[in-house]
Write a structure and sequence with these properties.
The chain has 603 residues and is an alpha+beta fold. Among the domains are: 167 residues, no CATH class; 149 residues, no CATH class. Helix content is 28%, strand content 21%. The protein is globular and about 85 Å long. The two termini are 43 Å apart.
């Protein structure tokens, strides 16, 4: 039953100077004039993680035009704008209420340069929801209700008024945000319609401020497309936008050190996301399925068919169904290619500097010394053409040490002082003067992707009994002998929201952007370079837990498992993956990152 703000004030005053646990009596929803405040979770003490709250504002009160949230890409842009606006407001009041520990904290997601869909702000068909954290004040462990009353009845109403109501926002800034989202969507559609995988606008600022700052670098060289690669895209708001188009196929980026090769590639890898105005990469747009591929020494690989690149190992290990707990650079990169195709990528982004040399290329002299019969690795050089022509996967490759890649490239760019130069014709003429290396290998065949996810000893009650008998401890991959062309079998699994109603779900802990643990089993995501925010890592932890407890049944393939989880996220939002309430602090990852997470889970 909805309570009034007056009742909350009365309740607050009744618990003043009591022990901290008395704060838990505040849980529930309260009507504050034109919005509803809900206290979802109260922290255990002033030094614990802060309390979780959210506010809801009906659209008729908020006043945002329907065209600002009637399509996913503009809705996400509006959510991002409101989150940033609320963060600005909170910064003026943060820790102005005094006390011990986190007393007085007012916090919401701190957005970076990318526009991500976050749990911090959710716009539904009838309302705007903003989720945030508050440090409930205390001196020691004694409640200081007066300071919390100041937060909830003075600070917060001002923040809500200045963040959630159209009439209190700058209409030009807000419209510019929506217009940019619409222009970015037009570019993405243009790429698909014209067989292109990326676009870099003239004038784009690609270098970042520093290795620890994603802000644009001042006084950097603006990007200018080579005339031969320039296209003009008509945009509804920004007008004609000219820039470099990278077409489907194999594109090679070369040049001397420090001339901008990796900088361009890094801009392309983050171009899978839209960026905010002023970032410099607003109009750097990449196919949203693109995957940055690199070597990952020491990663886990489970039941993956890497025979496209590695076969006939001296130890006779089966590379059609390969597993290891400690992959080499070449093995990990081979698995990355196969897993990327399984995840539906249409574009690989590769930097030679972060690749395994023996995986990428073998020169003729080395082949004379070590014969092909003694080398189990088929290099990427000999598979790249077939990957494009037979699997539809393009490649953008930064190379600096081997000229062999010139022979397979459709387009060759030289970066010269951060300016791209199309040298394709010049290099192709030079290639005629040299002996061409071997650039194709026989027996190209894609894996069947029949890997299924096997559950083991589970924490949830609906996994106990005969079903768990005879299975190894922990979860693993197995080959699915009963695969039926992608059909899903429910197998009696509980598909309800939350975690099946069980209170003993696996415990999650996130360690920044690089990793998380699930029941002390760490998932290492350091080399999943397209994760833009630690909140995406946090979301991956919740998605993996749901998959492990509700979806993996020994019959569903990896593709079926990911599809079920991601479809549920798209249709139902965050609710099914959170036990009792949706917290602030989740950001939606791409489906490719969900595949990467699952493939790196050693559990």
């Amino acid at each position: 039953m909805m309570k009034t703000s007056s009742e909350l004030r009365t309740l607050l005053r009744s618990i003043d100077h009591k022990g901290y646990p008395a704060y838990k009596s505040l849980g529930g929803s309260y009507q504050f004039g034109r919005y509803v405040l809900t206290i979802d979770h109260v922290q255990g003490d002033p030094f614990a993680s802060p309390s979780s709250l959210h506010i809801e504002v009906l659209h008729r009160e908020a006043g945002f035009p329907g065209v600002y949230f009637d399509r996913d890409y503009v809705r996400i842009a509006l959510q991002d704008y409101l989150t940033r606006r609320m963060e600005e407001q909170f910064s003026a009041y943060n820790f102005k209420a005094k006390g011990s520990g986190k007393s007085g904290l007012l916090a919401i997601s701190r957005c970076g340069q990318e526009v991500l869909e976050r749990s911090a702000c959710q716009i539904t068909s009838d309302k705007v929801i903003l989720r945030f954290h508050v440090g409930f004040p205390a001196f020691g462990r004694t409640i200081n209700a007066g300071e919390l009353e100041k937060i909830l009845f003075d600070f917060l109403p001002k923040c809500v008024e200045n963040s959630c109501f159209m009439r209190n926002l700058d209409p030009k800034r807000l419209k510019a945000c929506i217009d940019l989202a619409e222009d970015q969507e037009v570019i993405r559609r243009f790429l698909k319609e014209h067989d292109m995988v990326a676009f870099v606008a003239n004038g784009a600022v690609l270098p970042r401020k520093s290795g620890v700052s994603d802000l644009p670098m001042r006084d950097s060289v603006p990007f200018v497309s080579p005339a031969s690669m320039e296209v003009s895209i008509p945009l509804p708001h920004a007008g004609e936008k000219k820039g470099m188009a990278i077409r489907r196929g194999i594109t090679l980026i070369v040049g001397g050190g420090y001339h901008g090769k990796s900088t361009l590639l890094e801009a392309l890898q983050m171009g899978v996301y839209n960026h905010i105005s002023g970032d410099g990469r607003e109009y750097v747009i990449t196919d949203d399925t693109a995957i940055k591929l690199r070597a990952e020494d020491g990663r886990s690989i489970r039941q993956t068919d890497i025979s496209l690149f590695i076969r006939d190992l001296p130890n006779k290990k089966d590379t059609l169904c390969f597993s290891t707990e400690d992959a080499s650079g070449s093995t990990s990169q081979a698995a990355g290619v196969v897993e990327g195709i399984e995840a539906g990528t249409r574009l690989f982004l590769i930097d030679e500097d972060t690749s395994a040399t023996n995986f990428m290329v073998r020169d003729e002299f080395m082949q004379q010394v070590v014969s092909r019969s003694q080398e189990p690795i088929t290099p990427f050089l000999e598979r790249a053409r077939d990957l494009y022509e037979k699997a539809g996967v393009s490649t953008v490759l930064v190379a600096g040490s081997s000229g062999a890649f010139f022979y397979i490239a459709d387009k060759i760019l030289q970066m010269d002082c951060y300016k791209p130069v199309d040298i394709t014709e010049k290099v192709k003429e030079l290639c005629k003067e040299h002996t061409a290396p071997r650039t194709k290998a026989p027996d190209f065949a894609l894996p069947d992707f029949r890997r299924a996810l096997r559950p083991g000893s589970q924490r949830t009650g609906n996994r106990k009994g005969a079903e768990g008998q005879g299975r190894q401890e922990g979860r693993d991959f197995q080959r699915n002998q009963d695969f039926r062309g992608g059909q899903d079998s429910q197998g009696g699994r509980d598909s309800r929201g939350g975690h099946g109603g069980h209170g003993d779900s696996a415990k999650l802990k996130t360690f920044g952007k690089d990793s998380f643990s699930m029941d002390r089993e760490t998932v290492d995501l350091r080399y999943v370079e397209q994760l833009a925010d630690s909140e995406q890592t946090n979301a991956l932890a919740h998605l993996l837990r749901y998959a492990a407890e509700q979806v993996m049944d020994g019959r569903r393939t990896v593709q079926q498992t990911v599809s079920l989880v991601y479809d549920l996220l798209e249709k139902k939002g965050w609710e099914p993956f959170c036990s009792s309430y949706v917290p602030c602090g989740l950001a939606r990852p791409r489906i490719q990152e969900l595949y990467a997470c699952l493939n790196r889970f050693r559990g």
